[in-house]
Structures are given as structure tokens and as C-alpha cells.
Design a protein that fits this description.
Elements lengths: L15 E5 L5 E5 L17 E4 L2 E4 L2 E7 L2 E6 L1 H4 E2 L2 E5 H9 L4 E6 L4 E6 H7 L1 E5 L3 E7 L4 E5 L13
Parallel strand pairs: 6-9
Antiparallel strand pairs: 1-2, 3-4, 4-5, 5-6, 7-8, 8-12, 9-10, 10-13, 11-12
Amino acid sequence: MMWAEKSEPPGGDLAAAAVNSGAGTASVRTYSTVQHSRSQAPTGDMRATIRDGLIYRGGRHVACVRHGELRRTFDASRELLRGCLLFHDDVLRLGHSAGAQWIVATERGSGQVYRIALADFVRQSWNYTHPTFGAQHACDLRHFERVGTCELQQLTLFEVTP
């Protein structure tokens, strides 16, 4: 994670600074010393962890392992590289150690579900090291089996489905 240089906020305390409000009372504002990043994806120096089958990188849920499947969703317009789906190396290792034998990826926009055996993914993939996001493996979606679409439905509060 990239840290910004520490600078003293108004009032001199890094954790919180007392600021006089218009009514004459003191209020507390907190200041972060972490540099804000426009990117939502975790950087390459953040290692993946697994808790209760959920895989996190940089505090962000990126995949899960359920019923022998390493599952994730992706946005095809932003997350494919030349038609290839990428997985961080440590996410693949954690998925394998948690018992995943298949990779199942769902495209967010269309709901299209893609599936490939983990061993086939590793065999047919190529290494890619992104300057910011680190070591990954990429496999062309043409190697994946299309297994249908995921029907997502938003229900209203009182709607009942049969």
C-alpha cells in the first residue's frame, strides 16, 4: 500500500484535530494519512487472505471458494486483457489450497457464466505482471466452457416469488 507523507493537519494532531465550529464549540475531524487511490483494485503488494471461504485482497472481497469452485465476478469492459480473464497468483493458490477444482466466473453485465477446470486454467494460462497490481495469470475466455447465464433478480420489499 502506498502511504502519503505524513503532514500535520490543522491543530497539529495526526489522529484528530479540534476545529472551532461557528457556535463556539469544538468538533473533531479525523484525517487519513493514506493516499487516496482512484483505483478500486488492490495493489500488487497486498497479499490475499481467506476467511470462511471468502478470499480478500487489500480488505476487498475478490473471490470465494464454494463446493470445489473458485468463484468470481468480472466486468468484461474493464477486466479482460486481450480477451483473457486474469487471476492474481495468490488468489489461485488460496483457491487451490481451499479445495477448488474449478474456476467459475460470472460476467456482471450479461450474467454469462464461464467455467474451466483449475488445472486447465493453469496449463493454458500465461504469466502477466502488472506494474501496479502485481503477478497474475491470464487465460483466454475461449478456453472456458459457457454454462449459461445467471438470472439475477431484484425483489421489492413485499414481493413474493413462487
